[in-house]
Amino acid sequence: MKKIYFLLPVVLLACKSNPTVISEKASMATSKPIEITYKVEQNDVSDFLKYLSSDELEGRETGTKGIEKAAVFLEDFFKKNNIKPYFSSYRDTLTNFKTPAYNIVGVLEGTDPVLKKEFIVLSAHYDHIGLLKKQQPDVINNGANDDASGVTAVAEMAKYFSVTKSNKRSILFVFFAGEEKGLLGSKSLVQKLKKQNFNLYTQLNIEMIGVPMKRDYLAYITGFDKSNMAEKINEYTGKKTIGFLPKEAEYELFYRSDNYSFYEVFKKPCQSISTFDFENFDFYHHVSDEFKVMDISHMTSFIQEFLPAVTKIATSSTEEITMNK
After folding, report:
1. Kindly report the CA angle at 308 between 303 and 312, in degrees rounded to 5?
2. What are the residues facing 177 on neighbouring strands?
3. To pair with 303 at 20 to 30 A between CA atoms, which of 160, 175, 200, 206?
4. Nearest to 202 by CA among 278, 316, 40
């Protein structure tokens, strides 16, 4: 997650509706959820996250040898799971970084001849903040929660769709570089997509889901009041999957991750999903953000619970997720 300046004056988001009211409404399913027989394997989640947050990758700072190893790992994952490159290769070179740096972008074409012209974007950033400059026993900011956890979730969703072929819409799977440098990867990519007249329906960006919250909902969404996404996700899962987190509005997290780059250009529902609630994780941008403190069982359950939602988003006959007026 891009650096949060906790000492800045608090500026509350101007809400056009009462988030509490929306949250209550969002918890009520209005249609029967899709039944998913596919099972996310905990060992797969663990193995993927363990390598991506390993010391070998040296904190995955954009432009370093460590993130290059991560890029190769993600390319190999796409190849293995029959996710095709969106561009001429999986590597999308950033236009706004001083040295070569790459988003990793794959695509799975939709199965419906009409709906496949619409895209959903499932994304997370695979960069982190790299090595500490001061000498101490541990200098590697492994970034297990931030955001290897989100990358793992998107990768598992890519595997799911590759196996089930259940997406009528086309899906762009994106692993962003440069997020920690100022959302550079998403800012670069979105301009290229805009020139292509990219037909975006919605974007779900996954950010820091490595540990659970002690709340009556699984996760929160940034910019809760900006669209009906929370309501629809809860309808699709048949659970109170998404809730309203006041701290999210207080710190304006909607503007602090790669969803904002897409929203700014396309003005479509583009939001981030997270379980980092400022109370459940003490190692934000810290060398102790490591694999060993991640809750793999929670992550596996999180991904499993979201499968009905992403499936419905990828298959609904109309664009049901809309911006609030």
Report:
1. 130
2. none
3. 200
4. 316
> Which distant-in-sequence residues (6+ apart) come within 8 Å of 241 by Cβ?
217, 218, 219, 233, 234, 305, 306, 309
Identity at 241, one-letter amino acid code = T
Rounded to a whole number, what is the largest CA-CA distance in the chain? 57
Identify the CATH assignment for 19-315 out of 3.40.630.10, 3.90.230.10, 3.90.600.10, 3.10.180.10: 3.40.630.10
**Among the listed residues 231, 59, 77, 232, the one whose alpha carbon sits nearest the alpha carbon of residue 154:** 77
User: What is the phi/psi pair of residue 205, to 5°?
Assistant: -105, 135
State the pTM of this model. 0.92
Q: Two tokens at 14?
A: 């101007």
Q: 143: which 2 tokens?
A: 């970034």
Question: DSSP label at 128?
Answer: B
Contact indicator for 235, 168 with CB cutoff of 8 Å = no
- Note the pLDDT tens digit of each residue in 125-165: 999 999 999 999 999 999 999 999 999 999 999 999 999 99
Residues 179 and 126: their CA atoms lie apart, in Å, by 8
